[in-house]
């Protein structure tokens, strides 16, 4: 089984740097996904990176590599795992990335948290993020 993480970064140059950084990790496939071209534009701009990770070690290694990349920069990175969105910065990545792994594992296991009837689609279990972290529902 595999899990897809969608990683967005402000600025195409940073996305290229991240693609190069993540390339070559065993069990992690990295693919740049272009956004629809705007009218009268030349070339395409990447919308996000798709990181498809094998479960277990490759998933953890991929998230750890992402953490190291974020901590080395002053940037904001957005990660989507299923229906959950995480906003990561160099100051909160260490605290929040374990929740990314947890959400990915819950997604692969098909686990959902108990919910009130009529509250909409089931969501993975949520934990309160560390101070300054953002864990936004999709």
Automatic annotation (TrEMBL):
> InterPro entries from the entry?
EACC1 (IPR045428)
Q: Where is the segment annotated Disordered?
A: 107-138
Write one Pfam family the protein is assigned to: EACC1
| Name of the protein in question | Uncharacterized protein
Task: Give the species this sequence originates from.
Answer: Streptomyces fodineus
